[in-house]
């Protein structure tokens, strides 16, 4: 029996309906380039719409930050804001929310606008791992984690998001050796461990990530 089974099965009992809801929201982005996110009761914020460019921007915002902060900024900027806000306005929104790297993130989001068609093309692919390689090569500010995060959030089921919550969970369970930094080699090692858990529990990588995030934070976000 895998060390994480009992915790994940308990998490499934507690929040399965929210995980299914989130997966449906992600699939809408892949299929329609539009979704409505509702993070209640985990975050006290009203539902809002996002498209693929908005979601790619969200994944830039959450790097070295938090999902909650990214959600709040994404809602305030809105779909049109990510497409049209000048640097100064975008910077000010991000800064007011308390982001430590407001100028850098605003710059990266503005660069991202030129890649909107590419991002939509990526959303139509079937293989998440191949799509990830293209994103890392093409998108400024995207490493494996950011690319995987974006793909999961637009409906891909076959890539893992190795952030501090997931890596710590794997370390604590003895599924991978503790590392100070997440290199590409370590990332893929962690992803392989998660694939084994997914297969054992009959979950997709996307579902498993949401359950582990819930175990570590008490929230089902994205």
From TrEMBL:
* Residues annotated as site: Important for guanine/8-oxoguanine distinction: 222
Q: Reply yes or no: does the keyword Lyase apply.
A: yes
Q: Sorted alphabetically, which Pfam families does this protein's record hold?
A: Ogg-HhH
Q: Would you say which domain of life the source belongs to?
A: Bacteria
Query: Which CDD domains would you find in this protein's record?
Result: ENDO3c
Q: What is its EC number?
A: 3.2.2.-, 4.2.99.18
Active site residues per record? 145, 163
Q: Which GO terms describe its molecular function?
A: class I DNA-(apurinic or apyrimidinic site) endonuclease activity; hydrolase activity, hydrolyzing N-glycosyl compounds
Q: Name one GO biological process term.
A: base-excision repair
Keyword annotations from UniProtKB, A to Z: DNA damage, DNA repair, Glycosidase, Hydrolase, Lyase, Multifunctional enzyme
InterPro entries named among the record's database cross-references: DNA_glyclase/AP_lyase_Ogg (IPR012092), DNA_glycosylase (IPR011257), HhH-GPD_domain (IPR003265), HhH_base_excis_C (IPR023170)
Please list the reactions this protein catalyses.
Answer: 2'-deoxyribonucleotide-(2'-deoxyribose 5'-phosphate)-2'-deoxyribonucleotide-DNA = a 3'-end 2'-deoxyribonucleotide-(2,3-dehydro-2,3-deoxyribose 5'-phosphate)-DNA + a 5'-end 5'-phospho-2'-deoxyribonucleoside-DNA + H(+)
Q: Which SUPFAM superfamilies match?
A: DNA-glycosylase
Where do the HhH-GPD domain residues begin and end? 61-217
- Give the protein's function: Catalyzes the excision of an oxidatively damaged form of guanine (7,8-dihydro-8-oxoguanine = 8-oxoG) from DNA. Also cleaves the DNA backbone at apurinic/apyrimidinic sites (AP sites).
The record's similarity note reads:
Belongs to the type-2 OGG1 family.
Cite the HAMAP family for this sequence.
Ogg
Question: What NCBIfam families does UniProt report for this protein, alphabetically?
Answer: PRK01229.1
Q: State what protein this is by name.
A: 8-oxoguanine DNA glycosylase/AP lyase
Show the taxonomic lineage.
Bacteria, Pseudomonadati, Aquificota, Aquificia, Aquificales
Gene name tied to this protein: ogg
């Amino acid at each position: 029996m895998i060390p994480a089974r009992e915790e994940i099965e308990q998490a499934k009992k507690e929040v399965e309906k929210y995980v299914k809801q989130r997966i449906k929201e992600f699939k809408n982005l892949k299929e329609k380039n539009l979704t409505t996110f509702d993070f209640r009761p985990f975050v006290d914020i009203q539902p809002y719409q996002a498209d693929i460019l908005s979601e790619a921007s969200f994944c830039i915002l959450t790097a070295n930050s938090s999902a909650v902060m990214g959600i709040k900024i994404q809602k305030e900027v809105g779909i049109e804001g990510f497409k049209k806000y000048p640097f100064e306005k975008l910077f000010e929104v991000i800064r007011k929310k308390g982001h430590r790297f407001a100028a850098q993130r605003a710059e990266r989001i503005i660069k991202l606008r030129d890649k909107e068609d590419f991002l939509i093309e990526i959303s139509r692919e079937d293989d998440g791992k191949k799509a990830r390689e293209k994103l890392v090569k093409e998108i400024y500010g995207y490493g494996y984690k950011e690319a995987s995060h974006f793909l999961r959030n637009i409906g891909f089921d076959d890539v893992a998001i190795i952030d501090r919550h997931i890596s710590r969970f794997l370390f604590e369970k003895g599924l991978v050796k503790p590392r100070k930094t997440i290199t590409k080699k370590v990332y893929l090692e962690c992803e392989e461990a998660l694939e084994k858990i997914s297969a054992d529990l009959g979950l997709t990588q996307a579902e498993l990530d949401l359950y582990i995030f819930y175990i570590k934070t008490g929230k089902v976000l994205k």
